[in-house]
Amino acid sequence: MAHDITARIRTERELKISQEKYLKAFNASHEAIVVLDMQTELLLEANQSFELLTGLKPIDALGHTLCELGVMERATYELMHEVLRQEGRIRNREVHIHHQNGSRLDVTLYAEPVIVNGSECLVITAHDITEQKQHDNALRESQERLNMALEAAQMGIWDWSPHTDLLHCSARAAALHGHAEEAWDGPLQLFMKDIPGKHRRELRRSFIAIGRGTQSRYRLTYSLVPENDSLRWVEVTATLHRHSDGSIQRMVGTLKDITDRRRSEQALQRSEAKFSALFQGSPDPYILVNATTQLVIEINQSFTRVFGYRTEDIIGRTALDVGFWRDAQQRTQVLKRIDPAAGLNSMEIDFVTREGLYLTCEVSSSFITINRQLCMLSTFKDITARKEAEAALRASEDKFSRAFRASPDSISISEKATGKHLDVNEGFTRLTGFTATDAIGRTARDMNIWADYSERAVLIDELERYGRVRQREMRVNGKFGQELLVSVSIEPMIIDGTECMLLTARDITEQKLIEARVKHLAYHDALTDLPNRMLLSDRVTQNLAVCERLLQSSAILFFDLDHFKHINDSLGHSCGDAVLQEVSRRLLAQVRKVDTVARLGGDEFVVLLCGMEGPSEAIHRQVQHTAEKLLAALSAPMLIEGHSLQLGCSIGITLLPEHGTNPDDLLKRADIALYKVKENGRNGIAFFEQAMQIAASERLSVETELRVAVSKCEFVLFYQPQFDALEQRIVGAEALIRWMHPTKGLTGPMGFIHVLEESGMILEVGTWVLGRACQFIAELLRQGHISPEEFSLSVNISPRQFRQPDFVDQVRHAIDSRGVPARCLKLEITENIVIQNISDTIAKMQELRDMGVRFALDDFGTGYSSLSYLKRLPLDLLKIDQSFIRDCTRDANDAEIVRAIIAMARNLRLELIAEGVETQEQLDFLQTQSCHAFQGYLYSPPVAEGDFVRILKRDSHALPLP
């Protein structure tokens, strides 16, 4: 019987084709698929992806349950069946399974019951989401770290929709604007209400710029004063987000409180591209290189920040070319070790920065494909500091031990709570006398080291407050009873979990004594130990306050020793110092303890008389009496280094508060009164008067005008002829300076010479006089008016000018530069020059005299020189002072003095000339004593150059007398 099986065969063929398609799809699926019997739980089928997921070959897995294979835990399997029972299928269920290597995998399960050959089966599909879960966890952790970082940085975030004007702020951002510290939602304008108008306008301009596309983000700093709060500075950043069509979506940003630090580090700019954002925004250095050529393609900003290389330095070159690798051989080894699949993970490599510094980094590298080129992306973590710290840590114990033992200071380690010593160094023993055996296990109180035990509590309190104690001075006791002043510093430390103190103590006993001495020296004169100007000023200030409060009076007595410089120059500085010390003793002996005796320097002393009461006249008499008593005490003879000396002194006095309330002004006014005493001949007393202030001001005015006169050379020389009455001829002249004042006209030397001397301008003027006098001699010689053998021109030399080290050179230059015979120049010196450093005086005079220059001693008989000095000086001529000539015909004493001077000059074989001869009687008297040379108004007053030439031209053989 024949049956038509065509349809069956077709069906079977179609079934076979369907089965083949299913099998191909089953095995080609990227998802792991298994089929298991629901009754026995045994695996019936498993595809190749199952092997990739679990590490089990399907042939080995069939006939076993998932639990037997260790792929799924029993609890997980039962939970899966419970879901099937309740829901009939499983959709997108996350469970944990296990790989054969022991790792745990996260998968998403899909399960569907099916009937296979009449049996209930279950088809399970597993999708591996392990990497996705890891990514999600990393993202969540990153967000948590971001939130923590924002909180640590005190930053808030905000999100603003321009379409709704609705602003959302984080709790921190809301708090920055004075709102409650919780998330805030509301209009932007309400949030910005406390921002000043200027800053609000800047924010608005930035919003507009972002909206127009001219600016994608901005950073601004603004101030605000929230209600019931103080001024606050905030830094705002903003970024605009757009839809895919370019329309505005929203603006987000951050707020940061920068009140304590207005300038914040610039936030990393977010790149629009994902790779650029990760690459450029990373805080770690990144470098991208071509894996084949090793040429650098890109570096990020952190790479430049850490290593110094800029894009123009390195892009297009290899890292080896720019010297980035410290060791080229190490580079070769590293390149060999890089796994093409896994890259490089945390390898320590040494690099060189652009500035030549060495850095050790952990380097991780991976391969990526960019534009079909294999590239290597490397990131660096600078571990230089960590490596150095590790090295330092390894050496720290040895270093600490060495420093601890070798330190010259006392160092001890003790428990903070109990005070028991754990260790002490040799410096501790040297300071206190207690050895380590004495101290360890005992407290400072046990050893009676604390001079005041309560100071330990003070130290502990300071340590608690400030975290350390720095150089606190305190007193301690040594083992042998000695009391010491020490400087204590304390650092906290933890030893085996116990709070301890590292205490360093330095003996400053001697240092404090030295400081006290230095402080004393700062306010006292080193020679006499008297208060100096600074301390005197302070006492005057205090005394002024007392005078005002108690209605008392005080006085400042300003002393200057007369001719003290002569003692220094003639007897030496040691003798001068002894004189100053004796003066200080005598002054102290004459005043009360409440009074002050001070030395301002040199030979200047001040006595401050305090606490005087009574009417002004009585105060004046009391001060006058005290000043006279002090003057007498200082004038009494004193025996210094075998020399019997007798000093005079000048005293200027100001009364407090009558003459002022400023210490400096009072001292100046006492000095003005002192100057008045000197003008009147020294060795006297003068109270300050307002007229003296006026005179001092006038003198200052004269000095100012003289400085202009010196700069403009407003001086001229007049010449007074010197006549020999016996030979009836002019034998010379004296050059006398005059000031051609621009408003006062011709002014004689009495009005300004002393100012030139005191101000020092006499040096410049004296040089000019010397030069001009020599020039005039040259002109007279050239015109034939004088003979070099019979005429000499006298020039007065000031003491200060003579004392200049180059004085001889000045004279030589004046003579040589004008071609004048040296014998035509006669230098007139005073006795003040003679008695100041006699050796130097003689040396200079002799050197000039060897050149041919002649010397005359001016104003002889008015000074203090002795005959012994005169015998040693290389003089040519004595000038008899006009003060003796004036009354020589009427006063027997003056006549006798003149005779004595003439006789002495004759004995010393010196020439003579009398000055100030105004009458014939005076000349007759002089001639009877064989003194024929003279100058004075009897023959001619000082005249200008032209008039002097005319006198030379006229008949000089007869006196112009009736």
From TrEMBL:
Residues 699-956 form the EAL domain. It is found in: Cell inner membrane. SUPFAM superfamilies: EAL domain-like (SSF141868), Nucleotide cyclase (SSF55073), PYP-like sensor domain (PAS domain) (SSF55785). Its main location: membrane. Residues 552-690 form the GGDEF domain. Its cofactor is Mg(2+). This is cyclic-guanylate-specific phosphodiesterase. It catalyses: 3',3'-c-di-GMP + H2O = 5'-phosphoguanylyl(3'->5')guanosine + H(+).
